[in-house]
Amino acid sequence: MPVKDQIKNFAKKLVEDQPDAAALRGLVRARKPTAMHFRDDGIVPNNPRFPALLYRGAVKLNGRRFPPEVVIDTLFDTNGWGRSWRDTVYDFVHYHSQVHEVMGVARGTARIECGGIKGRILNVKAGDVLVLPAGTGHRLIDSSRDFLVVGAYPQDGTYDECTDTRQRPDAVKRIAKVRKPKTDPVLGSGGPLLEAWRTAQPR
């Protein structure tokens, strides 16, 4: 999301009651994510090294004290993924060539296309977390009315938004330079993302 959305969300977070470390640990489930490799389809580059990761039911959102979007936002921030936003997902194919992105579903359900038109359509619901390595095409197909996502980015990387095939040659070069993050957005320094992306082979 653009910087203005991140600034608006930052202001909101300053006045929210957020779970402390102990409460947060009780709201996270240690899940092994599903890894999905998407090939370059000629339009969307996707990522040649790192798979997209889907954590099903990674966050327990049935508590009444903290709103689900606050729980997910705090979780990502605690694990070093910041510059967060809260919104839906764009309904047009786009990708980020200079940064990885995590999206946690706080409310509702949706179908999200990942990997471009030759990729996969994923059914996601509240509590699911999707990590998209730089270059991974994504768009919203449809959703429930209450659908809400929290998005965030690792410390390294610059937000950009690629939608035009004319950007593709330069985007491919930028994607290759985006480094692996230092932490897993769901499970921190010992999370499965680090192993999944360490052992990933070029495709």
From TrEMBL:
Organism: Bradyrhizobium agreste
Classification lineage: Bacteria, Pseudomonadati, Pseudomonadota, Alphaproteobacteria, Hyphomicrobiales
Transmembrane segments: none
Region: Disordered, residue numbers: 182-203
Gene3D superfamilies the record matches: Jelly Rolls
Signal peptide location: none
Protein name: Cupin
Alphabetized InterPro entries for the sequence: RmlC-like_jellyroll, RmlC_Cupin_sf, UCP019307_cupin, YjiB-like
CDD domains: cupin_YjlB-like (cd02219)
